[in-house]
Amino acid sequence: MDLLNTLVEKGLRRELPTREEALAVLATSDDDLLEVVAAAGKVRRQWFGRRVKLNYLVNLKSGLCPEDCSYCSQRLGSKAEILKYTWLKPDEASEAAAAGVAGGAKRVCLVASGRGPTDRDVDRVSKTIEAIKEQNEDVEVCACLGLLSQGQAERLRDAGADAYNHNLNTSEGTYGDITTTHTYADRVDTVHQAQAAGLSACSGLIAGMGESDTDLVDVVFSLRELDPDSVPVNFLIPFEGTPLAKEWNLTPQRCLRILAMVRFVCPDVEVRLAGGREVHLRSMQPLALNLVNSIFLGDYLTSEGQAGQADLDMIADAGFEVEGAETTTLPKHRQGGGCGSVCGGESSDAPAEAPAEVRAEAGAARTDLVSVRRRGAGTDLAPNA
Ligand code: SF4
């Protein structure tokens, strides 16, 4: 297929595809799916070999959020029966993080619900980061605490944080349909603050919220422009008790096409398969390892993932290897931030108009696959790692 040959050549050169090409990936048929995966897999292997980075989530503070993000089980007014607890103590968080590191994770992601941290919260998280680094000097720590105020990114960096996550989630055009209590611009500003403080930026998206193909391409191109080092791709987990509970819009094939598109647009960036992997890809998860170079190990913030050992077995069975602490995730030209000189802008042949919309295929509701997290951080039960 000419499209795929072009995209592979561009990906190997770190050149941005056109919007039309990105849309065409999403519009490919199931008959072409393996060719799409193979093509994006060539780009993935060029920049990341067969390595898979494992990341481990620690939910420092769960539920009770005053914001209204429609996709989130922790939102204002959520009826989802998730764990609700306030800040974990530094030793509790450190214990949870240690389980992830013992399971093979090289990055620990410290996440707290809420609009953004107070300065006291930043103190708390700083103590937690110090406690984790004391136990595991080499582990990368990423903080995800919401919208940052002036000076907070610097304080987290000084406490030892390596990275900051704040997702764009969806396109600028649809952001107001998903959340009303903060804006897309607020989110972009926080990513910029993290970058300005010298933190490695992590920013991604959620697919499956009823968005169009154009919206998906828009958010991925916006992410490319923002130039984070890692891009988590979440697939909506339609939690009962949230406004998006009925949005079962994804099939495994659609998820693979989305991941392939993200890989072509962000060829040399850490693309991480995040929440919703088990729910939407199901038995097709191993194929996704050809597209992403990073996944979460074990459970998510408020839902349970497959057993940590099953993640490790899947990686080995598919012929991939867990990335060790001694290996730097990003290719050499990206180390130290930024994407290097080649990928500065969109190709000159980018069309002004996107082709007609292609409707997302609907997946069957699989509420049986959504399990609220009942173990690990905030409980007396051992974490899944
Ligand atoms: S995504 Fe974050 S800010 Fe939005 S409702 Fe959930 S916890 Fe709150």
UniProtKB/TrEMBL annotation:
Name assigned to this protein: Biotin synthase BioB
UniProt KW Transferase keyword: yes
Keywords: Transferase
EC number: 2.8.1.6
Enzyme class: transferase
